Amino acid sequence: MIQVQGKDLKLSNLEKVLYPAAGFTKKDVIDYYVRIAPAILPHLKGRALTRKRYPDGVDGEPFFEKNAPMHRPEWVKTAPIWSEGNRRNVNYILCDDLPTLVWLANLAALELHPSLALAKDIQCPTELVFDLDPGPPANIVQCCEVAFWLREIFEHFGLHSFPKTSGSKGLQVYVPLNTPTTFDQTKSFARALAQLLEDQHPGQVVSDMKKRLRTGKVFVDWSQNDEHKTTVAVYSLRAREYPTVSTPVSWEEAERALKKKDANLLVFKSSQTISRFEKLGDLFAPLLRLKQRLPNLNAATAAQNDADRAEVATQAEARRTPPRRSKAPKKASRSRARRKRSV
Question: Measured between alpha carbons, how far is 124 from 179 in angstroms, rounded to an integer?
């Protein structure tokens, strides 16, 4: 039994290896989340959290967990959210503090997937996300190229965007909103842009999720902008061969990887991500406070036909500015704080 910020926690099987290729144990997982807590907790706070648990390690069978388990400590906060599919409330965990984060790590919840909306206003996303998924032989280098095309469109609309690695194969681009909107609006807008890019770059981009269409292309997954879907949290571990992390990067870093055609430049293991945070602060901090509004497109039909896609292109062209070199976002201030199965 240990105490974390005044909360009693019982940790178990600390020497259990969860990443065999790296010899990375449950103790190492807990240590990572404790050290990255100042960075990740602000991005989890107040959001319904889906956990992907690996009780037998990354080589074992995982399972997603949405509902809070009955055996949770009484101090773990939850939020009841109505599920149409289940016709009942699902009690999602709110990972608002370090004790909860450590408790989840002890359950081998390696991957943390928060909602794009706060639980208190679950139908109002605070951010827009594009998940760029490469179809082999394409990789994250090709994702960088697509990300810059996306950024150019955002800039035409006066929107700032921020990239992070998925921690797996691809790249994700976020647009902070923090203003009143709906998932219908964000999803329609995202779909319109994905189809626009597919029209402009048919050899490199696909907006249809059918896997047979993705070979050698980058799938621009717009569908993540949905109340019922989640995207892996920034700073979350991923269940790959090694303990890689979904890590925020600067546009300059993405540009460097693209120019050098080196996918390895955008692969970060747990220790590297901690070092980056200690040096650079939280590159994703603007997602928490930057207020932006989507262009006033017809949300109901923006992605449905060519005319609306043309409207997106026309508006973007009208706001075109001379090309400019990539600029990394300003450094954020570093925080002062540093199924039941046996796991």
Answer: 8
Judge whether 285 and 293 are in contact, CB under 8 Å.
no
One domain for residues 173 and 288: yes
Torsional sign, CA 185, 158, 280, 249? positive
Task: Assign 194 a pLDDT band (cuts: 50, 70, 90).
Answer: very high
DSSP classification of residue 68:
P
Both 138 and 62 in one domain: the answer is no
pLDDT of residue 297: 60
The pLDDT assigned to 314 comes to 47
Closest CA to 207 of 123, 280, 135, 315: 135
92 versus 330: the higher-pLDDT residue is 92
Specify whether the CB–CB gap between 191 and 203 falls below 8 A.
no
Other C-beta atoms closer than 10 Å to the C-beta of 61 total 8
Among residues 121, 141, 158, the one where a domain terminates is 121
User: Is position 325 within any domain?
Assistant: no
Digit-coded pLDDT (tens) for 9-52: 999 999 999 999 999 999 999 999 999 999 999 999 999 999 99
Position 343 in a domain: no
Closest CA to 65 of 87, 93, 100: 93
